[in-house]
């Protein structure tokens, strides 16, 4: 508070240089000089006392508050005490007068006396490194009581000191000096910028530097790798993660010895000697978001790192190389950092500790990495490689594949094709992505449609991708009414696929007696439907399919069409209704991963010869509808007049026409106008090239970077699904709350320790003991797989801190 007083005094020019001035309130000020203080109210001195006279100062505070010259908050701020102290002084003065303001001697009243042995025990346990929760559990008190006792004893937690990492082959003072010199001359930020802007390896002309790097191996190990030993858990646990390829990756090189200062690696990257920074972890307590390291095993199981290395190889010399960028993008997605701009709200140092770096890539850096990957134009190959890995791991789930489109609305200034947005019930500028999900609702691959092509135009290209992934096995493709086309169905069936969809435009009705009750246990749930099963013929008998009709409780009939004749009728209906998994997938990714976020605003040239509906033809069609409606209205009025014609006055049609000549002429003119509009429309083409419709250049949104963003979010979602499956046997409500529990575990703080070739991650306690037990069981299962952090020799070991004892009330 003395600093605050000095700052407040500096606001007033009339205060002498050797005098401290504090404005307590609008009517009260306080001046301090030569060890004495004067409290002035409205220009009149109220109190004058020495600095060390606490009783006089307390009396001055009470006078200001009780006299209404200052509020409790103003008095507390001006005198450097808490508001609670001011209230206590006023109460004591009201109770005992001026004598009550004197500080009482002896032990504070109301505070229980602790035995000296108890105090020494707490000090000894704390010095040994025990946590407050562990000490409280041993003494059978609350954690708050231990914390207050340590505060009274003046205990200060010592910050852990990170030891310098030994260089491989021993420490060389000459090498350390040569490493420190360029690091001191080149700032870390400049080196990082130079490394990120490099597009290709830069050969060095200094042979001594290259020889130095080669002779030392350019490698620093945080700890010796543990000896290879068979895991105690069943081998199936590690095999299911499919980590054999990634665990053979050699550790990344580094000559930095301090994980908090990676200057030398940045300089090496700027000089073209480093393609990716090695992960060097430093120990820490309660590292924010470190719980996301639980997902490392699942991320490696998706194959996203290995596929990126196979497809892209490298992105050139950089401190944040390909492996680091891929791991960062997936981990950030799991931390619900939904777009690169959200990194502004996070500490780069905290995120860097999760990646094994001194700081994480920030917004511009991450965008440059995505742009560099997008410039290679290999997003489709990357997605295909990820899908192949998914088929290898979950081939049994590929018997039924669900295909549907997701529309991403565009709000920019460019003129791009429109698409119907079902959730908004209107047509808007947008891009359409078509996703293929397996029978569990988990994504397999995604394709961006050109010019918002409909599902009927995209089904065959999607099936070509499916055939390349699953081989010659027969797959059933499930889709909604948007793909209804009997001609297309015939081509799909002839290509070796089966179909399952709703019947569109069916006006028939199945009699009540043909329905029967069907009950079965499917996916662990009892399902009951009222179904009618029959065969149908389409395309004049050339295409014969099977129709299963569902009767609801309200009497509504829902027809389902399929080419599968081997499935029970109840499974046919259940498989189609399981489309809700894909709909929930879209909703979940929109809310949790910002699937609709636009990662790139750039545009590229589109096909100017692509035909689109002719706006003039649509205008004439609208005019024809209006003219036809007008002609029908006039004709109806004339017909009513004819029906009401009194025959005793006009016994012949000629007489009626003469009497209604005006109405007859209006009908004839309306019919002539309708015929004229139809002749005009006949001369207008129904579709024209898009260049005849769009003013200016024909463009579309650049899709490569957006496609990459979708693939990284897909990999993050797949990793999350794998963890939820592993968590399910240990958590009773996994189906309802499994993802919520996993999100809280991934976002939680954790302690990081590096010892004996292991990276030990100890998660903070969760909200309840049964949740802690479920996550602890998940940790045991992940520990059995002995997963290494990508690019290092460190084996990940997980644990959960015990829950603190309940507070004694």
What is the end-to-end distance?
36 Å
Instruction: Indicate the low-confidence ranges by residue numbers.
Output: 4-17, 168-221, 223-247
Please compute the radius of gyration using only Cα atoms: 38 Å
Count of spatially separate domains: 5
Q: Please outline the major beta sheet.
A: 10 strands, mixed
What share of the residues does DSSP label as strand, in percent?
A: 15-25%
The percent of residues in helical segments reads 40-55%
Structural class: alpha+beta
Number of strands: 22
Coarse shape? extended
Kindly describe this structure.
With 809 residues, the chain is α+β, with helices and mostly antiparallel strands. The chain has 5 domains: 2-101, no CATH class; 121-152, no CATH class; 173-380 and 731-800, no CATH class; 393-595, Alpha-Beta Complex (Transposase Inhibitor Protein From Tn5, Chain A, domain 1), CATH 3.90.350; 615-684. It has 29 helices and 22 strands. Strands 6, 7, 8, 9, 10, 11, 12, 13, 14 and 15 form a 10-stranded mixed sheet that branches. Strands 1-2-3-4 form a 4-stranded antiparallel sheet. Strands 5-20-21-22 form a 4-stranded mixed sheet. Helix 27 crosses helix 28. The chain is extended, with a radius of gyration of 38 Å. Mean pLDDT is 83; it is low at 4-17, 168-221 and 223-247.
């Amino acid at each position: 508070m003395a600093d605050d007083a000095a700052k407040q005094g500096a606001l007033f020019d009339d205060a002498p240089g050797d005098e401290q001035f504090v404005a307590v309130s609008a009517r009260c000020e306080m001046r301090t000089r030569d060890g004495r203080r004067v409290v002035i109210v409205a220009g009149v001195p109220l109190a004058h006392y020495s600095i060390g006279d606490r009783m006089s100062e307390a009396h001055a505070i009470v006078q200001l508050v009780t006299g209404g010259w200052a509020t409790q908050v103003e008095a507390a701020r001006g005198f450097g005490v808490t508001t609670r102290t001011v209230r206590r002084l006023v109460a004591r003065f009201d109770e005992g007068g001026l004598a009550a303001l004197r500080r009482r001697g002896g032990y504070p009243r109301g505070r229980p006396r602790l035995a000296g042995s108890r105090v020494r025990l707490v000090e000894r346990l704390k010095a040994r490194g025990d946590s407050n929760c562990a000490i409280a559990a041993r003494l059978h008190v609350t954690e708050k009581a231990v914390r207050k006792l340590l505060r009274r004893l003046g205990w200060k937690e010592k910050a852990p000191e990170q030891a310098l990492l030994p260089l491989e082959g021993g420490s060389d003072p000459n090498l350390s000096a040569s490493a420190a010199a360029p690091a001191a001359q080149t700032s870390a930020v400049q080196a990082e910028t130079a490394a990120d802007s490099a597009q290709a390896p830069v050969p060095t002309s200094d042979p001594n530097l290259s020889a130095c790097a080669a002779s030392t191996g350019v490698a620093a190990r945080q700890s010796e790798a543990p000896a290879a030993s068979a895991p105690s858990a069943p081998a199936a646990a590690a095999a299911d993660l499919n980590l054999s390829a990634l665990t053979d990756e050699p550790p990344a090189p580094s000559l930095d010895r301090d994980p908090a200062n990676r200057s030398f690696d940045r300089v090496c990257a700027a000089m073209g000697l480093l393609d990716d920074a090695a992960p060097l972890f430093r120990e820490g307590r309660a590292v924010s978001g470190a719980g996301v390291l639980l997902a490392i095993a699942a991320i490696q199981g998706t194959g996203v790192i290995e596929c990126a290395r196979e497809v892209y190889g490298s992105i050139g010399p950089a401190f944040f190389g390909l492996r680091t960028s891929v791991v960062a993008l997936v981990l950030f997605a799991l931390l619900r950092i939904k777009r690169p701009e959200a990194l502004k709200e996070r500490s780069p140092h905290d995120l860097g500790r999760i990646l094994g770096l001194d700081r994480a890539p920030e917004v511009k850096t991450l965008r440059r990495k995505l742009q560099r990957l997008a410039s290679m134009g290999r997003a489709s190959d990357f997605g295909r490689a990820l899908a192949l890995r998914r088929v290898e791991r979950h081939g049994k789930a590929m018997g039924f594949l669900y295909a549907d489109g997701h529309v991403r609305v565009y709000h920019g200034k460019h003129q791009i094709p429109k698409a119907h947005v079902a959730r908004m019930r209107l047509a808007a500028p947008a891009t359409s992505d078509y996703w293929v999900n397996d029978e569990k609702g988990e994504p397999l691959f995604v394709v961006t449609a050109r010019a918002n092509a409909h599902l009927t135009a995209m089904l065959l290209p999607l099936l070509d991708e499916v055939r390349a992934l699953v081989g010659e096995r027969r797959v059933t493709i499930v889709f909604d009414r948007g793909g209804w086309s009997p001609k297309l169905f015939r081509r799909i069936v002839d290509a070796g696929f089966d179909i399952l969809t709703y019947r569109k435009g069916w006006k028939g009705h199945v009699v009540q007696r043909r329905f029967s009750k069907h009950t079965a246990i499917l996916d662990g749930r009892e399902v009951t439907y009222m179904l009618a099963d029959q065969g149908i013929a389409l395309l004049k008998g050339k295409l014969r399919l099977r129709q299963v009709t569902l009767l609801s409780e309200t009497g509504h009939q829902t027809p389902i069409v399929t080419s599968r004749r081997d499935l029970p009728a109840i499974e046919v209906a259940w498989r189609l209704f399981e489309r809700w998994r894909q709909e929930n997938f879209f909703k979940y990714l929109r809310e949790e991963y910002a699937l609709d976020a636009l990662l790139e605003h750039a545009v590229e040239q589109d096909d100017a010869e692509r035909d689109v509906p002719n706006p003039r033809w649509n205008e004439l069609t609208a005019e024809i509808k209006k003219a036809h409606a007008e002609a029908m209205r006039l004709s109806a009025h004339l017909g009513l007049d004819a029906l009401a014609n009194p025959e005793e006055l006009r016994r012949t049609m000629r007489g009626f026409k003469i009497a209604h000549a005006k109405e007859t002429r209006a009908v004839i003119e309306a019919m002539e106008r309708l015929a004229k509009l139809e002749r005009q429309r006949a001369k207008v083409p129904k579709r024209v090239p898009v260049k005849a419709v769009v003013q200016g250049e024909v463009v579309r949104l650049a899709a490569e970077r957006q496609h990459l963003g979708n693939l990284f979010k897909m990999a993050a979602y797949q990793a999350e699904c794998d963890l939820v499956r592993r968590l399910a046997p240990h958590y009773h409500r996994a189906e309802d709350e499994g993802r919520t529990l996993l999100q809280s575990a991934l976002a939680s703080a954790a302690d990081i320790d590096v010892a004996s070739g292991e990276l030990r991650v100890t998660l903070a306690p969760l909200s309840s003991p049964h949740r802690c037990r479920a996550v602890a069981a998940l940790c045991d299962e992940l520990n059995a797989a002995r997963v290494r952090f990508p690019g290092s020799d460190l084996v990940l070991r997980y644990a959960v801190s015990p829950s603190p004892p309940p507070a004694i009330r």
